Amino acid sequence: MTNITARSVISILLIWTSAGGFAAGSSNEAVGWLGKMAEAMRQQNYQGIFSYIRGSNFDTVRIVHHSEDGIETERLINMNGEVRELYRKDDEILCFLPKGDEGTDCSLQIGPFTPAFPERVIATQNLYRLSMHKIDRIAGRPAVTLSITPKLDDRYGYRVWLDKETGLMLQSHKVERGRIREIFQFSTLEIGVDIEEIDLATSIEGETVSYPLSFEFKKEQRGEPKLRVSWVPDGFKQVRKSGDRLHFSDGVATFSVFVDRSKKSALSDMSTRVGGTVVISRRLNQAGPQITVVGDVPMTTARRVAESVEPLIY
């Protein structure tokens, strides 16, 4: 997670009702659909409006996506609250705001998954079970439904609805033991439409300002971490470290461990849920550093990780 403070969320508690299965919940069929999902997210031309619900946060976004000769271009327009837009061309991202609103937070929810998500799920079938369910209907389009269920309860599961014709994701739920933590859903959608240059132009009236954004991590401080995480869930591996930051992933889910050695840190032990993301903070001892675990894992998992952190003496 590159910017914890930019991620606004709380949990939503709903009951996840399973739909009946068909074709014996074929795992092979689900793998095929996940591959189609990854391809559709990169290659389809489409436009529509989606909602992303994370507890009390309810974001509604209009998206226009164009793909040609392997180059993706898209515009995302916030439909509620402050006026802001994102324009993306492959990995280059610009934030657009009305002139005079330069201080506005330009964080904009772009959905729960990247095209890499289905590919990572396919690569981690030792950790997740895949199954197919009945045909449903989302945004007026027939949709195939599949479940991505963790084999252990120490990580989230997912349910996704994919357009039957193209494989584009129409809806998704992030699930913890039957409770939905996040919901993504298209309400209107057109797929395979001609996207003109004007469709990708800003819709903000009057003068605008823009500045670049990046998903890349800032240059991280060097040095060996001064802590050790003695327990992580099965399948999670350390994927990056720098200074007093450690980052872990099982290929699908991620979490990070941070250490604040500042004497000015006034945080007491705390735990909170920010949508599907949890935050747990504790001191190693009364005068010791502050340990914070942040990630897309259940609260019980994050707490056990936090309790396993130990100072490392070289």
Question: What features would you highlight for this structure?
Answer:
314 residues; mainly beta; outer membrane lipoprotein receptor (LolB), chain A; Phosphorylase Kinase, domain 1; 2 domains; 11-stranded antiparallel sheet; 6-stranded antiparallel sheet; 11% helix; 44% strand; disordered N terminus
Structural overview:
By secondary structure, the chain is mainly beta. It folds into two domains: 10-213, outer membrane lipoprotein receptor (LolB), chain A (Clam); 227-311, 2-Layer Sandwich (Phosphorylase Kinase, domain 1). It has three helices and 19 strands. The chain has helices at residues 27-43, 116-123, 299-308, and strands at residues 46-54, 57-68, 71-78, 85-89, 92-98, 128-138, 141-150, 157-163, 169-176, 179-191, 208-213, 227-229, 237-242, 245-249, 254-260, 270-274, 277-283, 290-295, 309-311. Strands 6-7-8-9-10-1-2-3-4-5-11 form an eleven-stranded antiparallel beta sheet, covered by helices on one side. A six-stranded antiparallel beta sheet has the order 13-14-15-18-17-16, covered by helices on one side. Helix 1 (27-43) packs antiparallel against helix 2 (116-123). It is globular and about 60 Å long. The two termini are 28 Å apart. 34% of the residues are buried.
Give a quick precis of the structure.
By secondary structure, this protein is mostly beta strands. It has helices at 27-43, 116-123, 299-308, and strands at 46-54, 57-68, 71-78, 85-89, 92-98, 128-138, 141-150, 157-163, 169-176, 179-191, 208-213, 227-229, 237-242, 245-249, 254-260, 270-274, 277-283, 290-295, 309-311. α1 (27-43) packs antiparallel against α2 (116-123).
